[in-house]
Amino acid sequence: MDAEMMATQREQDTAEYLEKHKIIELMDNMTSMLFFYRPDKPREFLIEQLEQLKSSKRSGMKGPNLFDDSNLNAVFGILDPTNQNYITFAQYKQALLTLGIKDINECPEGVGEDRISNKTFKTEAMQGLQRCSATYEHL
User: Fold this and answer.
1) Sign of torsion, CA 105 133 95 125?
2) Residue 47's domain spans which residues?
3) Which residues contact 67 (CB under 8 A, 6 or more apart)?
4) Where are the alpha helices (DSSP H) in 80-136?
5) In the chain, how many domains are there?
6) 62, 109, 116, 120: which has the fewest Cβ within 10 Å?
7) Which tens digit of pLDDT belongs to each residue from 22-34?
8) Pick from 100, 135, 129: which is nearest to 29 by CA?
9) DSSP single-letter state for residue 80
10) How far apart are CA 134 and CA 122, in angstroms?
11) Which ranges in 1-137 belong to alpha helices (H)?
């Protein structure tokens, strides 16, 4: 087996490993949490999150939900500082990406008017986060 074939096999094995254990998704979720919470001690914060994950797995619970209702209200409030009670589709999409949600609903309620309500934003965010938390079940 030549070096190129070995590298290709090693790359394929690595990709399969990462996919099987949902490592990329886990890292995306952890990075999103760091950006959102901006802890003073990021390493300790990450260790704490992994310990919570381990604890929830032992108790048979699903993975932790990274953001709750108040967090999502805060995100929406940042995007809607004048309290218009809606954000643009571009803001909605960027916020969900920042939260680590990759499979975004491209046609949420209000997209036609380019006005995404807080309710729609939170619904879409929670559904996306629940899909992301399924990542933890594979660890």
Assistant:
1) positive
2) 1-139
3) 36, 75, 99, 125, 129
4) 89-98, 118-133
5) 1
6) 62
7) 788 778 778 877 8
8) 100
9) -
10) 18
11) 3-20, 23-37, 42-58, 69-79, 89-98, 118-133
